[in-house]
Design a protein that fits this description.
about 300 residues, alpha/beta, Rossmann fold, 2 domains, 7-stranded parallel beta sheet, 11 helices
């Protein structure tokens, strides 16, 4: 018996339980709220999606939890020293979906769609200078699975691509930077910056006044990572001053974005409701099933999140 622990509506939990049950017919899945006291004592695995940390701590035999999301920063923040391992979702379908969104919105900025939308509102007929893809410098922050696949997709579409990570990486066709000095070098040569970093203590507020100021005049920004990585006030200041031309934002400090937030009314901001790479319950359930089946056979927990790095 495996509990599904989540703060989502019960109807949403039942959708996950349906797909998990189909992928693992030999296992029994229950919402945490349906567990008996005896069952809570026995659980060694839990499947989680934005779980209440107190629910997890009520499972004394828990050895590990498997998130059905790629991002695990909330559970890491709420459980600073969890007595169990946390395994996040690594789904190649998710990486492909993200790379599709990255390419789509890079093309949106590259071909001046935001500018033409502004011109249309003013009935202004002006042809913007054409820039070849090979001359458009794209910077990708974060070269994990999502960043690597996205960078390669951009390369395959003719863009000049560089990437940055905490530690050295090598990706064919991508100029890779790392460390604090490497970040500054990448930012100074980037026309369109794409943020795909995990949210950690080191990345929170990383794109503030100082680092945003390193971007060339007229650069654009895409944030498909986490809202807290970008300083909203600093970004708005750069957009208002014309130093940055446009921002495409899919993630925010508070979601849904409050009605009174200045992003809503800013003509240099494109707002998306956290849809760049939604999790597919079917493929995610199959990945979770594979990991649990291996654990049942070998007793080995899948590669878990490093509590120091946060991912």
């Amino acid at each position: 018996m495996i509990p599904f622990v989540s703060r989502a509506k019960l109807s949403e939990q039942q959708v996950w339980i349906k797909y998990l049950s189909a992928a693992m017919p030999d296992e029994v899945f229950l919402p945490f709220a349906d567990l008996t006291p005896e069952q809570k004592q026995q659980c060694d695995i839990a499947i989680v999606a934005n779980p209440d940390p107190n629910d997890l701590l009520a499972l004394p035999s828990l050895k590990w939890v498997h998130s059905v999301w790629a991002g695990v920063e909330r559970i890491m923040n709420e459980l600073s020293s969890p007595p169990f391992s946390i395994v996040r979702l690594i789904d190649s379908n998710l990486a492909d979906t993200m790379s599709e969104a990255v390419l789509a919105w890079t093309l949106f900025l590259h071909r001046d769609m935001a500018t033409y939308a502004k011109q249309q509102a003013k009935q202004s007929w002006i042809q913007q200078p054409m820039v070849q893809a090979k001359d458009r410098r794209i910077g990708v922050l974060g070269l994990g699975e999502l960043g690597r696949v996205s960078a390669r997709r951009l390369v395959n579409n003719g863009f000049s691509v560089a990437g940055w990570s905490r530690h050295p990486k090598q990706i064919e066709g991508v100029e890779c930077f790392y460390g604090e000095e490497g970040l500054a070098l990448l930012l100074k040569q980037t026309d369109i910056l794409i943020c795909l970093l995990p949210l950690t203590a080191a990345t929170k507020g990383l794109m503030g006044q100082k680092n945003l100021s390193l971007l060339p005049l007229g650069a654009s920004l895409i944030n498909f990572a986490r809202g807290l990585i970008i300083d909203d006030d600093a970004l708005l200041s750069k957009l208002d001053g014309g130093e940055l031309s446009h921002a495409v934002l899919d993630v925010f400090v508070q979601e849904p974005l409050p009605e009174n937030h200045p992003y809503w009314r800013h003509d240099s901001v494109a707002i998306l409701p956290h849809i760049s790479a939604p999790t597919d319950p079917i493929s995610a359930s199959e990945i979770v099933a594979t990991n649990i089946k291996k654990y049942r056979l070998t007793g080995k927990i899948p590669p878990a999140v490093d509590p120091i790095r946060g991912y």
